[in-house]
From TrEMBL:
Pfam families per record: ParA (PF10609)
Protein's name according to its UniProt entry: Nucleotide-binding protein-like
The keyword Iron-sulfur is assigned to this record: yes
Family in the record: Belongs to the Mrp/NBP35 ATP-binding proteins family.
Organism: Gigaspora rosea
One of the record's GO molecular function terms: metal ion binding
InterPro entries given in the database record: Mrp/NBP35_ATP-bd, NUBPL-like, P-loop_NTPase, YlxH/NBP35
Broad class of the protein's primary localization: mitochondrion
Compartmental location: Mitochondrion
Source lineage: Eukaryota, Fungi, Fungi incertae sedis, Mucoromycota, Glomeromycotina
Domain of life, per lineage: Eukaryota
Needed cofactors: [4Fe-4S] cluster
Length: 258
């Protein structure tokens, strides 16, 4: 028998799969992943989100989902859903015991009854570890979206992340800058807390597309904490529009209509 990398498999019934990744933790990856999923669903696509953030699953909280998923007669997991988006999360399944986590990851990748989806968004764990490699090697991804804040320490890790995906032949759809600008709610003065154009500069240096900028705004954080993300709760707000602009660029790249 030939030994080597495992063969990549599509996910049954799912037309497109993108991953959202970051080099560093806490830069807003899950918030971007869920708002992108909801934005693309708002363009009348059937969307699911797979939370593969093994040690810090956020999607149950972001979608206000708590129940344990049921299984079908084949033993496949049936996703939960909220705001029209189907969701499956490591957070529904396990604690933090590594062997169990890796087994659960296989179940999440290959044994979920998604039904027909136009797009599955995978929320990756931060960094460049085993989970990212496993997903890159086992799943046919249309591409990965990298998110970073504009300060150097995050950008160094974003580069590492991008390099890892390139090495394993996963196309990079582009980079999103998060939390670069804070607009004072009283005087509208703009403050670039972590620097202004760090992600744009890095994307140019790396020859990657710049997909847009999401401001640092308390509303984004609070609505996420309530399990009511800004794209569904305040769809006409500036913040929601920023996520929708990024979503449109991604949809164009993977040939999804908007
Ligand atoms: N643009 C933003 N404005 C304000 N707060 C934000 C923004 N983006 C994310 N946050 C907040 O920052 C925190 C971290 O965000 P999030 O959980 O999405 O990051 P992450 O990169 O997925 O983290 P982890 O490494 O835990 O997976 C959360 O409290 C979230 O609400």
């Amino acid at each position: 028998m030939r030994r080597g990398l495992p063969t990549k498999k599509p996910i049954h019934g799912v037309k497109h799969i993108i991953a959202v990744a970051s080099g560093k933790g806490g830069v807003g990856k899950s918030t971007l992943a869920i708002n992108l999923a909801l934005a693309i669903a708002s363009f009348r696509h059937r969307v699911g989100i797979l939370d593969a953030d093994v040690f810090g699953p956020s999607i149950p909280r972001l979608l206000n989902l708590k129940a344990e998923p049921q299984t079908n007669e084949k033993g496949d997991l049936i996703p939960l859903a909220n705001f029209g988006v189907k969701a499956m999360s490591m957070g529904f399944l396990v604690g933090e015991d590594l062997p169990i986590v890796m087994k659960a990851l296989q179940q999440l990748l290959h044994q979920v009854q998604w039904g027909e989806l136009d797009l599955l968004v995978i929320d990756m764990p931060p960094g460049t570890g085993d989970t990212q490699l496993t997903i890159s090697q086992q799943i046919v991804l249309d591409g990965v979206v990298i998110v970073s804040t504009p300060q150097d320490i995050a950008l160094v890790d974003a580069r590492k992340g991008a390099n890892m995906f390139t090495k394993v032949n996963v196309p990079i759809l582009g980079i999103v800058q998060n939390m670069s600008v804070f607009v004072c709610p009283n005087c509208q003065h703009k403050v670039h807390i972590f620097g202004q154009n760090g992600v744009l500069k890095t994307s140019k240096e790396m020859g990657l597309d710049y997909l847009g900028d999401i401001p640092l705004d308390a509303d984004i954080c609070e609505l996420s904490d309530f399990g009511t993300p800004v794209v569904v709760t305040k769809p006409d707000s500036f913040n929601a529009q920023c996520y929708k602009e990024v979503a449109k660029k991604i949809m164009n790249k993977i040939n999804l209509k908007n």
